[in-house]
Write a structure and sequence with these properties.
Elements lengths: L13 H4 L36 H10 L3 H33 L6 H14 L3 H17 L3 E2 L6 E3 L2 E2 L8 H15 L6
Antiparallel strand pairs: 1-2, 2-3
Helix pairs in contact: 3-4, 3-5, 3-6, 4-6
Length: 186
């Protein structure tokens, strides 16, 4: 019998349709796979706005993550460590005051955190930031804005990262404490 284009819409006999489930989903009755929208989430090959050749894929697998990504991760890890040190200093001061049964002296706590943040060695962190600002546009192959001559990242103007200061780390530590303690910082 010749294959008819409309034959797919005809009901099939039970023996040709395969095993039947013992229960069925009432909402799914009458739906076909063609009715479902195509989605990248169910695709084995995700949507991309670029393609990689086999050679580029092998190169990416063999050399690993780009240098700018590793450097940025190192910067973030160092910053996180410094902020964690300040948070621990804050917590130790508050715990010591609580164990002594006295209220937290906000001025003394602030002075302690400022001293601690100023005692942190930021040279390595700032050297990494300087290096990142110098080489990132080249390593990431950033586009140039034809009007300003500046670099663009995803269509937006790229701004070099500011160097870390004791005040910047202290502000980050206060933000972590505020988020943890529900907005209250001693």
């Amino acid at each position: 019998m010749p294959e008819l284009p409309w034959a797919n819409f005809l009901p099939r006999p039970v023996e040709l349709a395969g095993p039947q489930p013992e229960t069925y989903d009432e909402e799914a009755v009458g739906k076909r796979e063609e009715d479902e929208p195509k989605s990248a989430l169910v695709s084995a090959d995700p949507i991309r706005n670029f393609t990689l050749s086999t050679e580029e894929r092998i190169r990416a697998l063999t050399i690993g993550a780009p240098a700018y990504a590793l450097r940025k991760k190192h910067i973030e890890d160092l910053e996180e460590g410094f902020v964690a040190t300040l948070v621990k200093t804050h917590d130790a001061f508050v715990a010591k005051a609580a164990s002594a049964g006295r209220p937290v002296d906000a001025a003394a706590l602030h002075a302690l955190l400022v001293d601690k943040s100023r005692s942190l060695d930021l040279k390595k962190l700032n050297d990494l930031v300087t290096s990142h600002n110098r080489y990132y546009p080249i390593e990431a192959n950033l586009a140039n804005d034809p009007q300003t001559g500046g670099y663009l990242v995803h269509g937006r103007r790229w701004q070099p990262e500011a160097p870390f200061t004791a005040e910047r780390l202290l502000a980050s530590a206060r933000a972590v404490l505020a988020a943890r303690d529900g907005g209250e910082v001693d």
